[in-house]
C-alpha cells in the first residue's frame, strides 16, 4: 500500500476485516462515516535509520490528515448549528406570520361589522326621510337626522383610528404642540361619554388635583387617548362607576381611568397592546370594536414622551394610567410652543366656530366663490352652506367649465377639488399660476386626499389652504371668510 495513492472503499473494508484489523471507521450519529483511521505496519529492516525515517513520515502524514479532518468536522458542525438556528428562526417567523394573518382576518371581520352597523342606520333613516307617503313629525325628523349624523361621525372616527395607527407605525404622524387647559379638557371628555354612561346606568367620577392646570401636549391626541380608555372602561362595566383621576408626581403627570367592571386576567394583560387583539367577554359583543384603541393610545403616549400602565384583576375592575412628562423639550433644548409643528390651514378649529348658519355681511357686498367639484352631492352641500352664509356660488364640475366662468368674472376665492373626473387638480393649479390675472386669487383645496404628504403636496403647488373631506362645514366657512373679499 503506497501512501501517495488513493484508497478505494472496498480496500478499506478489507483492511477493516483483517485479523487484527488495519482500518477503522470514524462515524457520528448525524453524518454517518466521516473518515477512516488506518494503521500501517512497516516491516523492520536492517537499516534502523530507514525505519525511523518511515515512522516520522507516517506520523507526520497521520497528524496532517487528523488535523484536516478535525477542521472539516468542526466546519460541518458549525454549518449544522447555523442551519438549525435558521430553521428555528424561520419557524418562529412562520408562526408569527400565521398569528398576524389570523388577527388581521379577525380585524377585517370586526371592521366590516363596525362599518356596516352605522351605514345601516345612515341608509335606513335616509330611506325613511325620502320615502313617499311618509311624513314624520318635526321631532322624529330631527331624531333621524341626529342618528344619521352620529353614525357618520362613528364611521369617520373608525377610519381615523385606522389611519392614525398606519401613520404612527410609519413614523409620519405630526404632533400639534400647545398649552392645554387640563381642567377644561378633562371635563369636556367626560361630557362626551356622559350619554353612554347614563344609558348603562353608570356613574362618572372626575378627580382633578387642584395644582394641575396646564400641560404642553397635543390636545387632540390627549383627548383621543382619554376617550379610548373611557369608552373601553364603559364597555366592560355593567354596574358601578367609571372615573378619571389626574394628579402630578415629581416631573410627571398621571391620567388614570378606572372602573368597577369585569377586570382583565394576567394572560390577557400581556396581549392588550397587540394590534387587532380583543378580549373575549360575555359582557361585550364579539364584534364590538376593532382592537386598535389601546394600541393607538400607547403609541400616542410614547410620542408624548410617556407610557401607559395597567393594573387589573378579574372581577375587581381595571386601572389604565397614561404617564406623561410635565414638559416637552425639542432637540435644541427649548420648550416647544403652540403651533410650532402646524402649518397653513391648521389655525382654525371647528370647535371655535358657531354652528349656526347666520348670513354674514362683508362690506355690504356678496363675495363670489368659484366651486370646482365633480361630485354633485358634495357640491350641493357646500353651495347650500356657503349661500346661507351670504356668498354667491358659481359651480363648475370640471376644468373646462371653470375656465369659462373665469373668463366672465374674477371670483374672490376658488374652492378646488384635486381628484376631478379625468383631470388633475394640481395641473389646474399650475395653469392658474401661469396666468398673471389669476395669480392673486386665493385657492382653497377641498379634497379626499388625506394621506401623509398630501397636504404638503397641495401647499407646495401654491394653494392658500387645505381642507380634507368629509368637509367640516364650519371650518370651511371660516377659511372662506378669511380670504373672501368683495369683487366688483
Q: Using DSSP, what is the number of strands?
A: 16
CATH architecture classification name of the largest domain: 2-Layer Sandwich
- Overall geometry comes to elongated
Helical percentage: 40-55%
Give me the side-by-side strand order of the main sheet: 4-6-7-9-8
Q: Give the strand content.
A: 15-25%
Q: Write down the oligomeric state.
A: single chain
* Helix and strand sequence: HEEHHEHEEHEEHHEEEHEHEEEHEHEH
Please outline the major beta sheet. 5 strands, mixed
Report the end-to-end length measured between terminal Cα atoms.
116 Å
Name given to the CATH homologous superfamily of the largest domain? Histidine kinase-like ATPase, C-terminal domain
**Treating each run of at least 4 consecutive H or I residues as one helix, how many helices?**
12
Any overview of this molecule?
A five-stranded mixed β-sheet has the order 4-6-7-9-8, covered by helices on one side. It has a five-stranded parallel β-sheet with strand order 11-10-12-15-16, sandwiched between helices. Strands 1-2 form a two-stranded antiparallel sheet. The chain has 488 residues and is an alpha/beta fold. Helix 2 packs antiparallel against helix 3, helix 4 packs parallel to helix 5 and helix 5 runs antiparallel to helix 7. The longest helix has 83 residues. The termini are far apart. Helices cover 46% and strands 17% of the residues. A hairpin with a 2-residue loop joins strand 13 and strand 14. The chain has four domains: 83 residues; 51 residues; 148 residues, Heat Shock Protein 90 (2-Layer Sandwich), CATH 3.30.565; 127 residues, 3-Layer(aba) Sandwich (Rossmann fold), CATH 3.40.50.
